[in-house]
Design goal:
mainly alpha; 2 domains
């Protein structure tokens, strides 16, 4: 469990920062400077978790586990973005970032699949 401390810690910090940033229950109204600082911290945590904190697979079983985790994360992202698109569509207020993120996820997955089937 000690080798999982960093990824779990980064995930917990990221969830806390995102929860504070979105403030779903309108519990606090931070001043603009605090909101900008919180936004910067959340963006840095997202960048760290997504791009800097890389994974190393040691054997085939580890590689398979990481592929299953990536697939589960992709499916969860598609599910949440699709639900957001439906809810916002019914409210007639679609945020343009939701369909953009959904489209990028699908196009990149399909493009990567075509590339790997052709060139790998």
């Amino acid at each position: 469990m000690a080798h999982n401390f960093l990824p779990v810690g980064v995930a917990v910090v990221l969830v806390v920062l995102l929860a504070l940033l979105t403030d779903p229950f309108m519990l606090w109204m931070p001043p603009a400077a605090a909101m900008a600082t919180l936004l910067g911290a959340a963006a840095l945590a997202c960048a760290w978790a997504g791009f800097v904190l890389y994974e190393r697979a040691t054997d085939e079983r580890d590689m398979t586990n990481r592929m299953y985790a990536g697939r589960a994360a992709y499916l969860a992202g598609i599910g949440v973005l699709t639900l957001a698109l439906v809810v916002q569509g019914l409210a007639h207020a679609i945020d343009p970032w939701v369909p953009l993120a959904l489209g990028v996820m699908v196009v990149v997955k399909l493009g990567t699949r075509v590339y790997t089937e052709r060139y790998k």
